[in-house]
Design a protein that fits this description.
This protein is an alpha/beta fold. The chain has helices spanning about 20-25, 65-75, 95-100, 120-125, 145-155, 165-170, 210-225, 230-235, 240-250, and strands at about 1-5, 30-35, 50, 60, 80-90, 105-110, 130-135, 195, 195-200. β1 (about 1-5), α1 (about 20-25) and β2 (about 30-35) form a beta-alpha-beta unit. The longest helix is centred in the last third of the chain and has 19 residues, at about 210-225.
Length: about 260
């Protein structure tokens, strides 16, 4: 996969040289190219922003440098990229969207600063490229670079060969499959006892069927407790009797029996 990022702070993306994404780049699984937006300015101050029409606080990123930068990048290939613009006003970025992006051969990111990019840029490229305005959460950052790091890591780890154990993707929270719509439950490793805290006995039992059931129960409990809006969506799914018992226990904790551990 090719990933291009146009930014006034290309140095912000140094973390993409380390960990899984850095290894993927070294293996040639990810081709990440950084571009300094100011290279497409033509004044002595290398200006990329100006005051907003209509008044109001803050500054808006000018369309001219963005247009020239995007034109220069997309001219390098005959097949256009998917243009992704992080913004709090975009559609939510989810695991489903990450899986969608992971199927793309080329992603181009346009992270904004200040009050955002002049909206004519999206209007210009909408008919020519697939333009996605996406949000990583209901909060505002100083700029879109942090959101790009989040998206690139979420997408990059889904690419074939990036994770050492491909099964890890299937077990992710929000991943499609048997655990779809559920948060991942608690995880443990050696030693079996640490500072008086014991690993649940069922995980040491060797009973894989019982372990799978326990993990699903814990995922249901965690989802209902921490993300009730996700648990509410489970009502339309094919939940078995045990699933419904667990969810009812979380809803009515005073009536819940002790959790099974063996």
């Amino acid at each position: 996969m090719r990933v291009d990022i146009i930014s006034i702070f290309p140095e912000y993306f140094a973390p993409l040289d380390v960990s899984l994404i850095g290894k993927a780049r070294h293996k040639g699984l990810l081709d990440i190219r950084l571009h300094q937006l100011r290279e497409w300015t033509h004044d002595v101050h290398r200006t990329v922003d100006d005051t907003p029409y209509g008044g109001g606080p803050g500054m808006v990123m000018k369309p001219e440098p963005w247009g020239q930068a995007i034109d220069a990048v997309i001219a390098e290939e005959s097949t256009p990229p998917r243009l992704i613009v992080p913004t709090p006003s975009g559609r939510p970025f989810t695991q489903e969207v990450a899986l969608e992006y992971a199927k793309e051969p080329w992603l181009l990111f346009a992270p904004a600063r200040y009050e955002g990019i002049d909206s004519r840029v999206m209007a210009e490229y909408g008919p020519r490229l697939r333009v996605d305005e996406v949000s990583i959460g209901d909060y505002v950052l100083a700029g879109g670079e942090a959101a790009v790091l989040v998206i690139v890591e979420a997408v990059g780890r889904l690419l074939p060969g990036v994770l050492g154990n491909a099964g890890s993707v299937a077990d992710d929270s929000f991943a499609p499959g048997a655990m779809a719509g559920l948060l991942e439950g608690p995880v443990y490793t050696k030693p079996p006892v640490w500072r008086g805290h014991e690993v649940p006995a069922i995980l040491l039992s060797g009973n894989h069927g019982a372990i799978a059931r326990w993990r699903r129960d814990e995922a249901l409990r965690r989802t209902a407790a921490k993300r009730p809006e996700l648990a509410a969506r489970l009502a339309g799914q094919a939940l078995d009797k045990r699933d419904r018992e667990v969810l009812d226990q979380v809803s009515h904790p005073g009536d819940a029996p002790a959790a099974e551990t063996t």
